[in-house]
């Protein structure tokens, strides 16, 4: 099924009776070449690129709930490539390029809006760091522009520039950054994978991973045993629990990150704006709601909900930066389970079990990484070799200490990343 403006008009005039399901509701087969555990953005993207790039279509994506019901639908939808350290910078640059052609590739409107992101800074040290980061981003081949306070007043007139505690010294703008519709991203990849023959199996929880003589043989599920030559664990905040089925202990902690949205308002925020002193970030959705978030809840948890002290902390940061937000009514909040590594950077790698692969530890970078992660993970599973942009996302860096990528410079404490 192809989408076009003419098709939308036709269906609107005929009662929308011609639309068909976006993907097949598959029944599990006895065996597959590849089984992907996790039907979120990264798992679906991996399945799509396995089929599209490598012609591997005897693939099953197993999701214990419904497709896109995890972190891919529980985030603030920001897409950017303004990372600093080698390893991260190449990867997110590659992912952003995939975002820019994604709608044409999938023939699906993921509502990718390159409205630009502005990261504010509030003292001399932060300004120096922003200049250094901007130069690194430009050397990587991506865009970054330094904005003065006068520049900012023209594009962000609603900020509180005169606050005595956190005066605004300027900002770093990436014009190609922006947002996308999170559930549409999941649906687009699901549809693309299904159209190429991948089986998408919902309400199918993996309860065990079968290993014999150091090689993976398949998985046990609530819908029976499934044999597979290769198995990929792509389950975000549940990474430690699923990996434990294979006898693995991962360097990952799971923490809750809350996000919030206000009632629908007339257009007032044209960019994604990040507060340099409060880990507060905000944008406006196509529905008009102000979407924002802040820090983790700081205690490990598997509960996909937040707590009131952190909600208060986020609201305080929002009011400090832009007092006008106090006039908006909060519509709802939600929590996502973040898979946090000790250096704040992800893992895409083989494991010690032959045929078992792992993708996780995305911390705050999961949504913006979806296309790049799926592309690189598919390359690894299909060829056995690391895809160059993701070559530094090695699991053994936490064992040896070589190749650690502490993007935020906050040390080896999971919840500080």
Question: How would you describe what is shown here?
Answer:
The chain is an alpha/beta fold and 417 residues long. The protein is 28% helix and 25% strand. Strands 1, 2, 8, 9, 10, 11, 17 and 18 form an eight-stranded mixed sheet that branches. Strand 10 and strand 11 form a beta hairpin. Helix 2 runs parallel beside helix 7. The radius of gyration is 21 Å and the shape is globular. The relative contact order is 0.18. The model has no long low-confidence stretch (mean pLDDT 95).
Please render the helix and strand layout as text:
Blueprint: H1 5-13, E1 31-37, H2 41-54, E2 59-62, E3 78-79, H3 88-100, H4 102-106, E4 117-121, H5 124-140, E5 145-147, H6 149-155, E6 170-174, E7 178-179, H7 182-195, E8 199-201, E9 206-212, E10 215-221, E11 224-233, H8 239-244, E12 253-262, E13 272-275, E14 280-284, E15 290-300, H9 308-321, E16 330-340, E17 347-350, E18 356-360, H10 370-383, H11 397-400
Parallel strand pairs: 1-2, 1-11, 2-8, 4-13, 11-18
Antiparallel strand pairs: 3-7, 4-6, 5-6, 9-10, 10-11, 12-15, 12-16, 13-14, 14-15, 17-18
